[in-house]
Amino acid sequence: MELLTPGRRPGPPDPAAPYRRVLLVSRDDELDSVLARRRVAAHLGGLRSVPLAPGGPPPDAALVCDDERATARLLALGVPVVHLRSGHDPGPGPATGDDGRALRRLHRPGWLPGPRPAGARTTGVLAPARLTRDRDRAGTLLLLSLWGVPDEEAGAFAAGPLRTLVHEAEHRTGRCEVVCDGRLAAVRAGLGGARPVRAAAEVDVDALHAAAEVFLASPTTGALALAHARGAPLCFLPPLGAAQRDLAERVGRVVPVPRVSDPADPSVWTAPGAGPHGLWDAVDPGLDDLRGAQRVARTLRQLALAPL
Length: 308
Known about the structure:
Elements: E1 20-26, H1 31-41, E2 47-49, E3 61-65, H2 68-76, E4 81-85, E5 103-106, E6 121-122, E7 140-144, H3 151-159, H4 161-173, E8 176-180, H5 184-190, E9 197-199, H6 205-211, E10 214-217, H7 221-230, E11 235-236, H8 241-252, H9 292-305
């Protein structure tokens, strides 16, 4: 997305505009970032999402998911920013240097063990706007994230276990939708080029999940929130990279999410979900907050109406 260059101050908002105008930014090659932006956007009734172009009026406020450079540039232009950190990071997170000028939020379920980084409020679960699943759902959704995964590790998974998994999913459930956030060429090559691989930024992941019977996903906060909010079955793909391994370990302390170790194991295709003794029964109802997206949207709306 093209931003105005620092040093060129934007003019005042257009008083004739019928709606407050907001800019929504995410890293489109990071699954969690894309899902976070979309889930917040679904609750922005009364606000109009606009691009930021040279010479145009500035937005009244901006939501930036993860992109620290975009946040810094927008703050330099005088645009109020809600910065949402969407994904899991086993470390303290990057230094921002914005001196508290951005309102910082962190996508973090209340029941998930781990330290809370200083300077960011946790949101609770960023749930999809639609919590129901299709009555006639079928097939498998395989949601793969390669963001932050070392090249060698990502390539080895795409060229080996992934192809076996997709073949087994098609055999067991009739079809398999493969959605990935980045490195699509490598993933397609690993699958032999015979199966379509769709970019997360170009499809409605939440709708695909609603239509699927089986959900296989990389350990990410966006995928976890999707299954958690809908009380749906979930099976983790083998964790790739430090962040996924750390998140899978922390989730496992509370919720016994199964992992794919042998694609031929029938339990992979009958993972526990909702109902008595399902996965999400282990979550403390007092910490089961699914209103994270609404909460971030409310903050953005308040910032647009009365900037700090």
